[in-house]
Amino acid sequence: MITEETLVDKLRQEKTQAKAFEVLVNTYKERLYWHIRRIVLNHDDTDDVLQNTFIKVYKNINGFKGESQLYSWMYRIATNEALSFLKKQSKNQGISDTELQDRMVANLQADVYFDGDEIQLKLQKAIASLPEKQKLVFNMKYYQEMKYEEISAVLQTSVGALKASYHLAIKKLEKFLKED
User: Fold this and answer.
1) Cα separation, 130 vs 172, whole angstroms
2) Rounded distance, CA 102 to CA 111, Å?
3) pLDDT at 29 (0 to 100)
4) Torsions phi, psi of 59, nearest 5?
5) How far is it, in rounded angstroms, from Cα 92 to Cα 129?
6) CA 14 to CA 176: how far, in whole Å?
7) For residue 164, with 0-12 CB atoms within 10 Å meaning exposed, 13-18 middle and 19 or more buried, which class applies?
8) Distance CA 171, CA 31 (A)
9) Of 61, 110, 175, 177, which has the highest C-beta tally within 10 A?
10) d(CA 20, CA 139)
11) Is residue 106 a contact partner of residue 85, using CB atoms and an 8 Å limit?
12) Mean pLDDT within 64-74
């Protein structure tokens, strides 16, 4: 396994860039896919956002300062790309962010790549009802099992604020799931 530092060095050198980028994509594509998928919910949209994320990483690797881990930097790019995609979608459709989330959850049942049952669908509806930051924190902590320090590096927020957001998200999800 190649170290992040070595990978970044190889990405910055023209003669090793193509091979290093292939390693980067193969190393992170699945984790980034699921991170994005939990934000945009649709497989095809996730693929588009993932591709845009890797393009941005490729174009901006020289701007990576190494102040955080490479994957934290890429998660931040993926998060921003996914959120920008959703904002663009709601603007293009002339609907609110909440309405867009409702439509996306409703479309999950028709998505051939969604293999969840009614309980999973209900959980996705509950997660969709959360404010953006709580949703991101919940998904990273619960589904991706990231540590608060890692989430802090991605979202550039204090660990204390993340713990509070996660706690609030859990309380809201419990309430939502008990209501129906």
Assistant:
1) 7
2) 15
3) 96
4) -70, -30
5) 21
6) 52
7) middle
8) 27
9) 61
10) 29
11) no
12) 90
